[in-house]
Structures are given as structure tokens and as C-alpha cells.
């Protein structure tokens, strides 16, 4: 039984030599040391079958520590792997030259609270799991170019030490089971992970704490999982920003589709950022975009940019948008929930744009257009006004849509105010009547004149004489 244990340890240790060891490592235990105890007072023992491995147990004072390392011949023989269990001294000195030639240093299931100083040498595997660590000097691990595995799980850490430059190496890091880790201290790790060089072990038990107020991403919980942290990070990286502005991207909701991992939807607030155009790119799954109080005039990106394709709520109040005709036939116009364009420069409302939109969808849609000053003409007075009155459920601010040239509100618009061609027509009628009367008078006076000439001279003046004879002419001639 014991032999088997050592053999496994040996197998693992030989794997360690090549830098990796599976997670199922069976580590040397204190059995052997305990067994030797009656005959030896040394806290450390070299494994009989594995001469490069030393195990130390129950170190509760510096005296036992130094004596153990000395009688265990840790430095004398080429020791590569050192395991210490039940190390209960408050601090652990990383700067000691004793660790310089080690490949494995494992100080687990003890009670030490602090790691001080800086390691150097060829350590590639450090395990401080299951202690009471509350602090590790920031640079403790910074000078370990061969580090492949760092396990500081199940401690009481609030922040993480710097890791050595990862470059091309794969480093496995276990920080699970630290219940007071602060998220802001973990964010830099995520960018390392995206380069595929950092493997986070036990992701499911890896959490960090986010102060409710400053961390606006997940409001319902203080505990943020690694998974959530990564999503947040990728959203933050893609959150629109420019030299002079930074939009606010935040969590909007979660879509749970059975059989799929939950997808998070994002809301982006770029209001009041002095933008003159829509942001270049939005984070994945942006469904709410608020670009109010800017100087935006074009809706082009909303129509054909793929990162805008999930937008349901588009709020662009107080901008310079002059037309929404381009939205015709767009994906957005069929899928939106809110289209808010209050206080823009819309000159007209192309009602055909919405004809199948309001009819064909069962779910509520809202369009806000208050404060726009339309170019009110007769068709506005007729069709747009009617359209507004019949779609008040969709256009709740229908009563605040205005006409330019001081014509007041569209819903108050009177046809007689703007339908000029009707007034024209009635005036024209009077001209025709007046013209007709004038013509009649002329005709009557011409006939009277002809009659007068005929009476005195006996013949008809031109052109009456050239006209074919009419029955009434016989009256005159007879
Ligand atoms: C190491 O252990 C194996 C099996 O347990 C045994 O056969 C071998 O003799 C041991 N070698 C030494 C040097 O103790
Ligand atoms: C840890 O060591 C102390 C003495 O140093 C001992 O009293 C205690 O029982 C040990 N704990 C374990 C779990 O071995
Ligand atoms: C670190 O030590 C703990 C306790 O001995 C062990 O459970 C864990 O597997 C070790 N970590 C690694 C990565 O081997
Ligand atoms: C862990 O740290 C927190 C805050 O830093 C502290 O409140 C708590 O008592 C510590 N727990 C242990 C077991 O040391
Ligand atoms: C790191 O790990 C990844 C995946 O596990 C692997 O594709 C890559 O080749 C590794 N890189 C190095 C330098 O070992
Ligand atoms: C982590 O949790 C997910 C879902 O809860 C599960 O599918 C996965 O197997 C877990 N991973 C590990 C390493 O436990
Ligand atoms: C954030 O808080 C609001 C109201 O308190 C709640 O409706 C919403 O679901 C919370 N968000 C998350 C991600 O839990
Ligand atoms: C971004 O959102 C946070 C949290 O909602 C808020 O405190 C902060 O003022 C916002 N920043 C800007 C520039 O709007
Ligand atoms: C829009 O631009 C004008 C000048 O071009 C500027 O005066 C105004 O403040 C800008 N408005 C916003 C909301 O940025
Ligand atoms: C959009 O932003 C403006 C300005 O910050 C704010 O007043 C308004 O409430 C926001 N609208 C929505 C729907 O979030
Ligand atoms: C979107 O339309 C604009 C103007 O028509 C064009 O310049 C741009 O290339 C289009 N973008 C995409 C992704 O099609």
C-alpha cells in the first residue's frame, strides 16, 4: 500500500520533471514521516524510493522548520520536490535561497497567512492550496520564468500577485475557493487568458466580489463568476469609445434558451457624447442603444451594420436626424420595440414605412416623434394626421408632433390651413363665371351691333355674313 503510494508519487514526480502533472496527482503524504517519528525527531524525510523528493510535516515553529530542512538534507542532496504539510508559521519566506533549485514546492493544508519576498530559480510548480493566506507580495512569483502551475486555491486572498511574463507558455492557475477576491484584481488575468496562455483551473468554483455600487454589470449579486467576468470583459473591450468619449455598456438581461448556455444582452448608453455619427461598432448582443443628446444625422449603421442587428430599442432623442425614409425595408423596422426620435429634424413622417410594421406584429412597438417640426402640407393634414389618430397606441406622443412655420400641432392641423389648391379652385370658379358673364355681354352687344348695322345698311357685317344661314336668320331676312 505504502509502496504503491510512493510509486505513484514517483510517477508523478517524473512527469513533473517535464513540467506537467495531471490533476489526479497523488501526492506524498505524512504517513512516512509519521512512521519515522518515533526514531527521528526530524520534521522532514526524504522518500526512500524517490531521492529527489522530501516531505515535511507539522511545522509550527521556525526552529522545527530550519532543523527539519537541515536534518532532511533538503539542500545537501539534489532535492527537486518539496512537500510541506501542516505548516502553521504565520509567514512563508519566498526569498530564501533554499527554494532556488526546487522544481516543485508544495506547502498545503497548513495555516500560514502571508508569503513575503520573491522567489527565484527554476520552480515550475507551486502549490499553496488550503492555507489561510491573506496576502502574497505582489512580486513574489514575478521572477519565475519556468512557472507552469500556481495553485493558491482555498485561501483567504483579496488580491492576486503578479504572474511572470507568460509570453508563449501555458500556465495553469487555480484561484478557486478564495471568497474575498476582488473583481478589479482579476480583470487583467482575463486579457491574459484570451491569449490562450493562462488556464484557469476549477472555473466553476472561481468567483470574485464586486462592490454593488461601482460594478454596474451584475447588480443582483455580489459574487461574480469567472464566466460572467469574461463576458463582461469582452463587452467592455467592445464598448464604443473614442479619443474624447467613452460609452457606458451594461448588462440588460439574460435570455435563457433551453439547451443553450444563457446569453446576455447588453445595453449601450452613448448619450451626450458629442457624437456626430452612430458608434462604429457595438458589443455582441446589444439590444438597447441610447444615443440621445448628440449631433447624429445618419441612421445608416442601424440599417446595414451587423453589430446593430440585434437592436430592439433605439433612442436617439435630440439629434439632427432629418429623415427616416432609409429605414424602409430594413431588419430594424420589423423588429424594433422602441424607436425614439424626439426633438430631431424630421420634415416628414413616411407613414408607408410603418404600414406593415404596426399591423403585422402582435407585440407592442413604440415610436416617439415629439418635438419634430414637420413640413405640414395638405397630405399631412389629411393622411398623417389621420394616421396619428388611428395609431395612438403606438405613437403615444402623437399630440406633441409639430408643424413648422408656426402651424402648431399636427393633430390640430386644419385642412383649410394647408390645402391651398381647394381655395384656388373656388377662386377659379368665380373667374370663370365672371369671364362667362363678360363673354355674354360681349356676345349680346355684338349681336345688337350686327342687328343695328343690318337694319341701317341691309347687309350683315363680317363675319356674320360668312356664317351659314340659321333658321332664325329667315326671321331677319323676311
Ligand atoms: C522502489 O520501489 C519499487 C516497488 O515499490 C521496488 O521494487 C524498488 O526496489 C524500489 N527501489 C528502491 C531503490 O528502493
Ligand atoms: C499540525 O501540527 C500541529 C503541531 O505542529 C499538531 O498539533 C496538529 O495536530 C497538526 N495538524 C494536523 C492536521 O496534522
Ligand atoms: C495542491 O495541493 C492540494 C492539497 O494537497 C491538492 O488537493 C491539489 O490537487 C494540489 N494542486 C495541484 C494543482 O496539484
Ligand atoms: C478572510 O478575510 C475576510 C476579509 O478579508 C475576513 O473577514 C475573514 O475573517 C477572513 N477569514 C479567515 C478564515 O481568515
Ligand atoms: C497551450 O495550450 C493550448 C491548448 O491547451 C495549445 O494549443 C498550445 O499549443 C499550448 N501552447 C504551448 C506553448 O504549449
Ligand atoms: C461547470 O459547470 C457546468 C454547468 O454547471 C458544467 O457543465 C461543467 O461540467 C462544470 N465544469 C467543471 C469542471 O466542473
Ligand atoms: C438588476 O436589478 C433590477 C432591479 O433591481 C432587476 O430587475 C434585474 O433583474 C437585475 N439584473 C440582474 C442581472 O439580476
Ligand atoms: C455609466 O454608468 C454608471 C453606472 O450606471 C454611472 O454611475 C456612470 O455615471 C455612467 N457614466 C456615464 C458617463 O454616463
Ligand atoms: C452639436 O453641434 C453644435 C455645433 O455644430 C454644437 O453647438 C452643439 O453643442 C452640439 N450638440 C451636441 C448635443 O453635442
Ligand atoms: C437615454 O439617455 C438620456 C440622456 O442620458 C436619458 O435622459 C434617457 O432617460 C435615456 N433613455 C432611455 C430609454 O434609457
Ligand atoms: C452601409 O451603407 C453605406 C452607405 O450606403 C456603405 O458605405 C457601407 O459600406 C455599408 N456597410 C455595409 C456593412 O454594408
TrEMBL record:
Keyword list, A-Z: Leucine-rich repeat, Repeat, Signal
PROSITE patterns referenced in this protein's UniProt entry, alphabetically: LRR
InterPro entries from the UniProt entry: Leu-rich_rpt, Leu-rich_rpt_typical-subtyp, LRR_dom_sf, SLRP
The UniProt record lists the keyword Repeat: yes
Signal peptide feature range: 1-21
SMART domains the record matches: LRR_BAC, LRR_TYP
Keyword Repeat: yes
PANTHER family: AGAP008170-PA, INSULIN-LIKE GROWTH FACTOR-BINDING PROTEIN COMPLEX ACID LABILE SUBUNIT
Protein's name according to its UniProt entry: Pupariation
Amino acid at each position: 500500500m505504502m509502496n504503491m503510494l510512493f510509486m505513484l508519487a514517483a510517477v508523478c514526480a517524473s512527469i513533473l520533471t517535464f513540467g506537467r502533472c495531471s490533476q489526479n496527482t497523488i501526492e506524498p503524504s505524512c504517513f512516512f514521516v509519521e512512521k519515522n517519528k518515533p526514531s527521528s525527531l526530524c520534521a522532514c524525510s526524504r522518500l526512500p524510493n524517490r531521492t529527489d523528493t522530501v516531505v515535511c510535516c507539522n511545522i509550527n515553529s521556525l526552529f522545527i522548520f530550519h532543523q527539519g530542512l537541515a536534518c532532511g538534507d533538503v539542500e545537501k542532496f539534489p532535492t527537486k520536490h518539496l512537500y510541506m504539510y501542516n505548516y502553521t508559521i504565520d509567514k512563508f519566506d519566498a526569498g530564501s535561497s533554499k527554494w532556488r533549485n526546487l522544481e516543485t514546492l508544495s506547502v498545503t493544508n497548513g495555516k500560514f497567512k502571508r508569503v513575503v519576498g520573491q522567489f527565484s530559480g527554476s520552480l515550475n510548480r507551486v502549490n499553496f492550496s488550503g492555507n489561510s493566506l491573506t496576502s502574497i507580495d505582489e512580486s513574489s512569483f514575478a521572477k519565475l520564468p519556468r512557472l507552469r502551475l500556481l495553485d493558491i486555491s482555498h485561501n483567504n486572498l483579496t488580491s492576486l500577485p503578479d504572474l511572470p511574463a507568460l509570453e508563449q507558455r501555458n500556465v495553469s492557475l487555480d484561484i478557486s475557493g478564495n471568497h474575498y477576491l476582488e473583481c478589479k484584481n482579476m480583470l487583467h488575468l482575463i486579457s491574459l487568458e484570451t491569449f490562450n496562455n493562462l488556464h484557469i483551473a476549477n472555473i466553476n468554483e472561481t468567483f470574485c466580489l464586486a462592490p454593488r455600487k461601482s460594478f454596474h454589470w451584475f447588480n443582483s449579486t455580489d459574487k461574480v463568476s469567472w464566466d460572467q467576468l469574461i463576458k463582461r470583459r469582452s463587452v467592455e473591450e467592445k464598448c464604443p469609445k473614442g479619443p474624447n468619449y467613452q460609452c457606458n455598456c451594461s448588462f440588460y438581461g439574460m435570455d435563457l434558451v433551453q439547451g443553450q448556455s444563457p446569453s446576455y444582452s447588453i445595453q449601450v448608453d452613448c448619450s451626450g457624447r458629442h457624437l456626430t455619427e452612430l458608434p462604429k461598432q457595438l458589443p455582441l448582443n446589444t439590444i438597447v442603444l441610447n444615443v440621445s443628446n448628440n449631433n447624429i444625422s445618419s441612421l445608416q449603421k442601424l440599417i446595414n451594420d451587423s453589430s446593430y442587428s440585434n437592436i430592439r430599442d433605439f433612442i436617439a432623442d435630440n439629434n439632427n436626424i432629418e429623415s427616416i425614409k432609409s429605414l424602409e425595408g430594413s431588419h430594424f423596422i420589423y423588429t424594433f420595440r422602441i424607436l425614439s426620435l424626439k426633438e430631431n429634424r424630421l420634415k416628414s413622417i413616411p407613414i408607408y414605412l410603418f404600414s406593415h410594421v404596426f399591423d403585422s406584429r402582435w407585440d407592442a412597438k413604440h415610436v416617439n416623434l415629439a418635438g419634430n417640426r414637420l413640413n405640414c402640407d395638405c397630405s399631412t393634414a389629411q393622411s398623417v394626421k389621420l394616421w396619428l389618430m388611428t395609431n395612438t397606441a403606438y405613437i403615444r406622443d402623437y399630440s406633441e408632433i409639430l408643424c413648422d412655420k408656426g402651424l402648431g400641432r399636427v393633430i390640430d392641423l386644419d385642412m383649410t390651413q394647408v390645402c391651398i389648391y381647394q381655395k384656388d379652385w373656388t377662386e377659379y370658379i368665380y373667374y370663370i363665371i365672371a369671364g362667362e358673364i363678360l363673354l355674354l355681354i360681349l356676345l349680346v352687344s355684338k349681336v345688337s351691333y350686327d342687328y343695328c348695322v343690318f337694319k341701317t345698311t341691309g347687309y350683315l357685317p363680317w363675319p356674320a355674313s360668312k356664317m351659314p344661314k340659321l333658321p332664325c336668320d329667315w326671321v331677319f331676312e323676311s
